[in-house]
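ok so I'm stuck.
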Amino acid sequence: MEFVPFETVAYPALLVPEKPSPETSVGITSTVPIEIIFASGYIPVDLNNIFITDEDPTHLVERAETSGLPRNNCAWIKGIYSSVKKLGMKKVIGVAEGDCSNTFALMEVLAAEGVEVIPFKYPHSPKAEQAELLLKSLNGLVSALGGQSTSGRLHEAEKVKKEFDRIRSLVHEIDRLTWQEGKVTGEENHIWNVSTSDMMGNPSLFEKKARAFLEEVRERGSLPGGIKIGFIGVPPICGGLYGFLEELGVRVVFNEIQRQFSMPYPTSTLLEQYLLYTYPYDTQGRVEDIRHEIKRRGIQGLIHYVQSFCYRNMYDTIFRKTLGVPILTLECDRPGGIDGQLRTRIEAFVEMLRKKEIPH
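replied:
not stuck anymore, here's the structure
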């Protein structure tokens, strides 16, 4: 599937499968060990990407509400529900611990409607004593996907990991070109990182496209300088943020959670890789990662995106106390562009950062 020009869509065009087959695909509600899915002969489909790139994602939210999901529920959950129904997915892996607090209830709803639901749990903390619990989850996922020999199938998944390490390194290079050489926009960075959650369901095609993109951007000149900011929190449900920031002379040089989807740390095993993945665990690992990237990338301020009705909104107070740079918190509910109020708040934040740059 070719890129859709960015300016023609409200939300950035992601790399998603053309039309996943319900017979061979497994829907995922968040990042899970896709190496095990591929090693088991299935194709992962990130339902978040399917939802947000739908021709009418708002309709998917409304369809879920018509089916009985509450209005005061996260729009991502409702979009995932409707995406499962629209695609006719027969099998879904739901992150029951380590993601959205509403996912467990969503899985019960889907199971009651005939979808085979496979729960996956991240331990509460990535500390060494939790490694045994995560290993149990990895083995459980192998068994749930039909592995006759858990150890044998997990060994096959480790082979897939080595292949994916090579592919993910291309996305890591795209990330480096964003902040170090200024040749990749924040929106393009977002697209490539967030799309690693399922690699389009076709890793070889994903790799081919990533290599072609790298060839293209290496020929570019550097983007105009400007205020460097980072984007922390879950990927936004609203479109137009990156383009509006660029209009204001701002460069997004860090997409926190999206980068985590690409597994940015060198690791030797699946267990180590998913223990270092910061998103499902407590905020300590996230804070350490963000602080390191603030210093490395020269970040002057952060936008913390929070989703309406999400428990993770409470983390905002921790970030404000620990990260040491100005933070603008933005909250959205449903798909669509950014409204006038958000634009005004962003403009005021950028102006404040710009004044801090001017020596007195």
